[in-house]
Amino acid sequence: MHEVGIGEDIVERLTARRGRYHLYDTIDPKTAAFVIVDMQNAFCKVGAPAEVPASRGIVGNINRLAERMRMAGSQIIWIVSAFDSKGGRSDWENFFNNIVAADVRNKTMAYMSPGAEGTALWHELDNRDEDTLVVKNRYNSLVPGASQLERVLRSRGIDTVVIGGTKTNICCETMARTAFDMDFNVVLVNDCCAALSDREHVAALENVIQQFGDVLSASEVEQRLK
Asked: How many domains is the chain built from?
């Protein structure tokens, strides 16, 4: 888990600009969803193609917050990435052609194809039958065509998304930005998120809290549940 936080200069700047640091004093659990992104074998397993070592360190915090929010009446939504492929082509060629190195392209495509080992939730996560699983095929699960997440949230009357998972600065941050633009209240849970470095993790936290939502610890989220 990352043992770093938002810089004091950011705290001072925000307090001066809006008269307060945190955005939300309370969170209504009945209209909130804890959305946990990409906590699957492809990112959590040692030696996996997209391993994020720090992701294993946030499992306990995710499980505890998920249980607390379940008990309060919130929705728990697990997001996993999977990419369909046929004839050597995937459904996200831009990613596999330009972001993934050529020598691991086929390995990554196979490991993250629908139903493959890489798409399974990490075995230490407390996934319950009443939870929801959503599959995405882009970084941002709210971008049009990437997943059914928006439909799930709207149909259940969700107005607040509490975000955890990996990577903080990629899939979590991109979802936070879009969720804000779509008029959801956004909370990024700093100790339920993991990146490849402290620097990248903090950069995402600072981006989100300045323009797109609140950044709270798991315990701070619990304290705000009405």
From this structure: 1
